[in-house]
């Protein structure tokens, strides 16, 4: 990102620089940012429990009620960012929606390149899925273009939750709203690793339901929760990286939906597969190609100017992410 692309930020008089020119955030903005993110995360998770029910989380009635409350919180979430900006005095010539990754410039690239990059990472699982699938490629295309298939998906509450509502609302709340609040304080690099902690902790609420419905031993449930926190934190770091590099919400949402569909790679099944050698080769090849393509396929030049980059300064190590 060139200097000409950067957005001018007007901080209050109390926000200047050290004598060596290094950026310092507004006084107290770090606490305000963290508390704002914490409040937003609690509001999102809390909205899931405003409905009292003895039914499990996968019951269609429970899912519909949670859709309502989560969509309300997500719709109101930009107000958290607006209130944060007003309270801290941080100003930007970019619109609030642009800072949250909701913009038209570079949209086509944002909707394709990050998803392709994620599919490269899942090369092994995709090959494994293709080998085990009873359909051939042509049959798969016919199903994919059949409107009845999509109508069936849209009538399935769990599919809607996992592929549409959860990716859209979680990326909006935990990436598009939180990263702009964390970037001026922590810088982009630190914000990318800090933001997923809220996302990971937010998934601990599943422990309550598992214990409530006695779906396993206490030790097993706790172990599962720790694994889920680790996995969601790593995944959140990746989508936060995508958001910062592309300046778009679209990429993280599509990657989130795809990963929800694929699930965690079934390595044990791959190791026991009759075609273990080629599958494991694809697993390794996918990881290597992903690491090689991570920065080239998220190069900001493909997506136009990246408004979020203007909220952080090079002193926090965000320069390499913006160019």
List the helices and strands and how they pair.
Elements: E1 9-10, H1 29-47, H2 60-88, E2 91-92, H3 96-99, H4 107-121, H5 123-132, H6 137-144, H7 147-154, H8 157-202, H9 205-212, H10 218-246, H11 250-262, H12 267-271, H13 276-293
Antiparallel strand pairs: 1-2
Helix pairs in contact: 1-2, 1-8, 2-8, 4-11, 4-13, 5-13, 8-10, 8-11, 9-10, 10-11
Question: Would you mind describing this structure in some detail?
Answer:
The protein is mainly alpha-helical and 323 residues long. It has 13 helices and two strands. A two-stranded antiparallel ribbon has the order 1-2. The chain is globular. 33% of the residues are buried.
List keywords for this structure.
323 residues; mainly alpha; two-stranded antiparallel ribbon; 13 helices; disordered N terminus
Largest sheet: 2 strands, antiparallel
Q: Kindly report how far apart the N and C termini lie.
A: 4 Å
**Number of extended strands:** 2
Tertiary shape? globular
Can you give the mean pLDDT? 84
Arrangement of strands in the largest sheet: 1-2
- How many whole angstroms does the radius of gyration measure? 21 Å
Q: Regions with pLDDT < 50 over 5+ consecutive residues?
A: 1-23
Share of residues in helices:
55-70%
Succession of helices and strands: EHHEHHHHHHHHHHH
